[in-house]
Amino acid sequence: MAGATIDHLVSVTVFLAAILLFISLFNQTIQTAIVYQRHRNLATRCSDLLDNMLLTPGYPIDWGRMNDTPTSFGLQDPEFTQYRLSPFSLMRLNYTPGSPIYYDKTGQWYSNITMGFGQSLLVPYNEVVNYSYATKLLGTNNTYGFSLTITPILTITIQEVQSNPLNLSVNVFGSGFPLAGANVSYSFLTVQGTGGSGPYPAYTIEYGDALTNGEGVAYLSFPGYDTTQDSYCLLAYAHLNGLVGVGYRESVQYEGSYVVPLVSDFETGTVLIAHSYDVHQGDDPAEIAYNATFVLLSKDFTLREMPLDNTTNTGKIGKINYGYGQPYNNITLSTDNPGLLIITYRKSAQESGVVVMPWGISSVGFPISFGGDVSQKEWVATDTRQVVVNGIAYQAKLGLWDLQGYQVIG
Amino acid sequence: MMRTVEILLVIIIITGAFIISSMFAVLPSPRQVSPLNLRRLALTTLQSLDVNHDLSDTAFRPVNDPAWGQLQVAVSASLPPNIVYNLTVYEVLDTGTQVFTLVKSISNAESLGVETDASTYLSASSNVTFNVVPEKIGANGNGGTLYILNCSDAMGWWITGYTSQSLAQDLYQLLSPYFQSTVMVQSTAQLGQILNGTQLQNETLSNAVVINTLGEAVPIPSGYYASSGVGYDPTAGSYARYCYTLGSRVRQYNWTWVSIVGYPLYYVANTGLFPSDQNSWGIYGMKMVNAAGLNAFLRGLDNQAYSYDNTWITGSPGIVYMTTQTQYYCNYYGVYPSAYQTATRSLPSSIQGTYHLNATTIVFNQVDNWVSGAVYRHSVSGSGNFTGSLFALGLTRSPDIRLTGLGILCDYKPRLYRSEYSAAGTSRLIVLQLGQVGGV
What we know:
The complex is a heterodimer of chains A (410) and B (440). By secondary structure, chain A is of the alpha+beta class. Chain A is 17% helix and 40% strand. A 5-stranded mixed β-sheet of chain A has the order 1-22-23-5-21. In chain B, the strands form 6 sheets. Chain B has a 7-stranded mixed β-sheet with strand order 6-5-7-9-18-17-15. In chain B, helix 6 (164-175) packs parallel to helix 12. Chain B is elongated and about 120 Å long. The mean pLDDT of chain B is 89. Chains A and B meet through helix 1 and strand 22 of A and helix 1, helix 3, helix 4 and helix 5 of B.
C-alpha cells in the first residue's frame, strides 16, 4: 500500500515537472513564431507605408508650394505619376540631422540643411512639417516610428587638383559602382571681384562638357583662372542612360562676412537675405554688398536666369550689415519651377564670395532625412525605392519600427 | 512502480512530439523575416532609368551598340552594392506560338542566389504612333446619324463671338468620328426635308441627334412649316406652333434635339421668311417666340395638345459644377472644358413629371431644383421605350461647344478602341531580376 502511494507521488511529481518543462519549451517556440510574424508584418507595413508616402501627393496636392499645413501626407509630384517626388514638398520636411538655427531678427527657429560653406537651405519651423505631425497624418502615431531618408543615387565629389591654373576632378559614383563613360555638363561661375553693377558683385558663367573615365572621374581645366585671386563655384551634372546626378563645389576668397538666405514664405517665394554674423556669428563682421540671381536648369544642363522682383530698393542687389538697426533684405523667387538662388557678395575688390540656396531640394542634390531616431530600436524593417526628383535620381529608404514592443507572455 | 514507468513513457512521447514539431518549425533566416521588396526596387529602377526615355531608346538599339554598355554601368550604379541583377530585353511577337524572343541580356553576377524577384517593363519604340478608333454610335443598326444645323439662311443668337457655321465646323470635328454618318444641314429647306422624313445623304433618319448651332434661335423652313396651324399660331400671333411641330417630329423620329446655350427655342430664324423682322435686339431675319417656344416644344414632344403658354420656366442658379460622371468622361474622351460654368437658363427638374421625361445623363449637378445640363428622354408611362429626347444646356453665353459634345458622348458612351500596344516590332519587354548577396 505504502509502495503504491510512493509510486503515485513520484509519478505525479515527475509528470508535473515534465509538463511544466514542456510548456516552457513549446512556449518558446510559439514566442519565436509570434515574433517572426510580427517582424514579417512590420516589413510588409514598411513597404506599404513607403509606397503610401511616395505615390500620393498629399492634400492639398501642391502643399509643397503653399504655407498651409497638409491634411494628408504624401510626397509625389502632383504633376506626374509613379515615383516622381515633388522637390517643394521635400523642402518642407524638417531635416532631422541638422542643428536648428535661430535668427533673432525674425524671432524664428529654422530647420537647417547645410552641405558645406555657402550651401544651405534654412526653412522656418512654422513652415515645415515635423515628424510627430507626419505620423498623425499617416496614422502611425504611437504604433510605429519611421525614418525616411532620400539621398541622391549619384555622389559627385569635386576636388581641386591644381589651383593655378585651376584643375578640378569630378568623381561620379553610384550606389554601388563608379559611373564610367558618363557625360558631365558643368556650369563654372566666377565672381567678379571688380566690375559689376556699381559696388554689387556680378558673375560670369562658362559652360562645358566632359566624359568620365573608367573610374568615374572627369578632369576639368580652366586655364587662366587663379583661385588665389577670384571666387568660383562649379555646378556639375553627370548623366548616363537616364541616371542624372548633381554635384557642387565652391571656393571663396572671403568668409568673414557673407549673406545667408532664409526661406520666409513658400507661397510667395519670399527669401530673406540675412547677414552671416546675425545667424552664425563670425570673427570679421562688416557691411557687404550682394547680387542675387535665380536660375533654372534647362534641358541642355545650362542655367537660365529668371527675373526677380526688384521693385523695392531692397531685393536683387543691395548692401547688408549686422546688428540691431540693420534690417534684412528680401527677394521674391518664381514659385513655379525649382531652381537655384545664387548670391554673390563682396566686401572689397579682393574679398568676395558666393553662396547658393536650392529652391526645390534637387537643384544641388541635397539629401533629406526625416523622422525619428533609428538607434536603440529592437528591430527595424527597411525598404528602398528609386525615385526621381525634378529629373535627379534619388533613392528613398524607409526604416520602420514598432513602438508597441515585442514582449510576449511566458 | 508501474505509474512511474507510465509517466516516463509519457515523457518520452512528449519529448518525441517536441522534437518532431521543432523539426517542422524551422526558423526562417533574417532575410526572409524582413525581406527587401526586390520587385518594387526593380520596377522603380526601370522607371528611373526611363524617366527621359533613355531605357526605351537603348532597348531598341542593335545588340552591339555601345549604349548597352552604358546601360549596364547605369544599372550597376543605381543599385545598392549588395544587389545583383540580370536585365533581359525581349522582342514582343504577335504571330505564332512564341510570344517573346530574347534580344539581349546583361548581368553583373553568374548567379542571383536562392531568392530573387523581378519586375517587367514594356517599352515602346519611338517610331510607333498609336491609334484610337472610336466605336460608332448606331453601329448596332439603331440610328447613328448626327445632323448639325448649319443653315446659311438663318442667324443665331447668344452664340456671341462665334457664327453658327464655325460652331458647326467644330462640332463636326469633335463628334463625327463617333457617328455612322454626319450630315450638315446647310439650309432651312434641307431642315424641312428631314422634318418631312426625307433623307439628305442616304443616312438613317430615325434615332438621330440634331444639334442646333443657332443658340437660342431655331431655323424655321419657309412654306409648310411656317404656315398657319403648322408653324404659326394665328390666335397668339406666334411661331410657337412651329416649336410644337418640331417637338412632335422629334418624338416621331426619336431624335435627340440639342440646344447648345441659353433659353431653347426662344426665337425662330429664317432670313428669307423674315427679311424685315428683327428679334428686338436688332438681328434681322429672326422673330421672337419667347418662352412659348420651349413650352410648345415640350408639349409636342409629350404628344399633348397644342396650347399657347408663354410662362417662363427656366431659372438662374449661377455657378454650377460638373458631375463626377461627366468629369470621368472628360478624361475618357480627352475633352476638357471648365468644370464649372455659369447657368442662367436652367430647366426645372419638374419638367420630368410634367412631360414624362427621364434625365438619363446629368452634365451639371442640380442646384435646388434647377438642372443646368441634362439629356431628357421622353418615355410614355410604363412603355420603357424612349420617343424623342432633349439635351438642353442652360448656360449663359458664349457657348462652349465642347460641353455639347461631352454631354452627347456621356449619354451614348461610345467606346474607344486603342491600337494594340504589343504590336510586333514596336514593343520590347524589359525584365529586371534582382537578387541579394551577402548576409544571411
